[in-house]
UniProtKB/TrEMBL annotation:
Catalyzes the ferrous insertion into protoporphyrin IX. The keyword Metal-binding applies. PROSITE patterns: FERROCHELATASE. The lineage of its organism: Bacteria, Pseudomonadati, Pseudomonadota, Alphaproteobacteria, Sphingomonadales. Belongs to the ferrochelatase family. Transmembrane segments: none annotated. This is Ferrochelatase. Fe(2+) binds at H205, E288. SUPFAM superfamilies: Chelatase. Gene3D superfamilies: 3.40.50.1400. It comes from Novosphingobium organovorum. Coiled coil: none annotated. InterPro entries: Ferrochelatase, Ferrochelatase_AS, Ferrochelatase_C, Ferrochelatase_N.
Length: 336
């Protein structure tokens, strides 16, 4: 029996940083995708339909049909390091660790699937981190993404007897470092294209329109990121027209508009011949950018009469993107 003050020694003062993204299947196969979608689409933050009505649709229809279709999409973008979203998030953690040095221990985890938040939080604690900054890599806040990470974090903490102190990274949709990074990285990529785009389409992930009416700030934060970025680009690329749209519609409800696929067709039909598409709501390339935008988006635009199409990379591990992450994380850690 230990005496009351005879607790195991803690390595006092070690800081941890846990980068978090959405999560992705373990393999580009229908069974792995089904497992992933079952967890993702059972989250009441993502599908806000009462479980009694939603479960029969999810299990009776969606999980019988969507996994094969989605697995095909994942198979087209899968890499030797696995799913792009996981590979890039892991790389972001490695580069951030190099940038932070001894100032903090950096790890990464996923809201759905692997590696899980609970496992990685415990790993940081076991490595001596008594204070952990949890950083959901979503520039814009939404209940379906940011708040859902907090739900899962709460579940993980609930199961821990000896918890680390927690801080969370606020949304950074209008943070100067974020707009700086997007401005620099997108101008660099546009300059490297083999054509001069007439239009830059900023495509954000969509959400049901109802979430906006219910007070979710996601739509307004996307619009503000787009406005701030467009203002910067107007000085550097005055001939470029910047438009905003929302992609990845899911289900039958009305989603935020205009829809990316419809805008691509409308632009081509209205005479736009050269377009570049960027996805400033995603911190890492994933199936939604690499398949939906870069493959299907291209087909839509060219079939409607467009001539040149490019999808620009997300910030990923670009110099500008990593500089931004370092600034955001250091700003939070300095409060400790
Ligand atoms: C960037 C923010 C995201 C928001 C907001 C978001 C909302 C949201 N998503 C779905 C349904 C699906 N999303 C899927 C993939 C996916 N979604 C995001 C990000 C946001 N989602 C990312 C980064 C990814 C890519 C994951 C990867 O493995 O690469 C999918 C799976 C793919 C597919 O089958 O199409 C679904 C389904 C809803 C319903 C929703 C808001 C309510
Ligand atoms: Fe999504
Ligand atoms: Fe999609």
């Amino acid at each position: 029996m230990r005496k009351p003050d005879d607790h195991p020694p803690a390595m006092v003062g070690r800081l941890g940083v846990l980068l978090v993204n959405l999560g992705t299947p373990d393999a580009p196969t229908p069974s792995a995708v089904r497992r992933y979608l079952a967890e993702f689409l059972s989250d009441p933050r993502v599908v806000e339909i009462p479980a009694i009505a939603w479960k029969p649709i999810l299990h009776g229809i969606i999980l019988r049909t969507r996994p094969a279709k989605s697995a095909h999409a994942y198979a087209q973008v899968w890499t030797e390091e696995g799913s792009p979203l996981a590979a890039i998030t892991a790389q972001q953690a490695r580069v951030l660790q190099q940038r932070l040095g001894d100032a903090a221990l950096v790890d990464w985890g996923m809201r759905y699937g692997n590696p899980g938040l609970a496992e990685r939080l415990q790993r940081l604690k076991d490595a001596g981190c008594d204070r952990v900054l949890v950083a959901p890599l979503y520039p814009q806040y939404s209940g379906a993404t940011t708040a859902s990470v907090m739900d899962k974090l709460g579940d993980a903490l609930k199961a821990m007897r000896w918890q680390p102190a927690i801080r969370t990274l606020p949304p950074y949709y209008d943070h100067r470092a974020h707009i700086d990074a997007l401005e620099q990285d997108l101008t660099r990529q546009i300059a490297a294209l083999d054509f001069v785009p007439q239009v830059l389409l900023l495509s954000f992930h969509g959400m049901p329109e109802r979430t906006l009416q219910l007070g979710d700030p996601y739509h307004c934060q996307c619009r503000k990121t787009a406005r701030l970025l467009a203002e910067r680009l107007a000085t550097r690329l005055p001939d470029l027209r910047v438009e905003t749209s929302f992609q990845s519609r899911f289900g039958r409800a009305k989603w935020l508009e205009p829809a990316t696929d419809a805008v691509l067709v409308k632009e081509a039909r209205a005479g736009t011949r050269r377009i570049a598409v960027a996805a400033p709501g995603f911190s890492a390339d994933c199936v939604e950018t690499l398949e939906e935008l870069a493959l299907r988006g291209r087909d839509d635009f060219l079939a409607a009469g467009g001539e040149a199409f490019a999808t620009l990379d997300c910030l990923n591990t670009s110099r500008a993107g990593m500089e931004m992450l370092e600034i955001l994380v250091k700003q939070e850690l300095s409060g400790w």
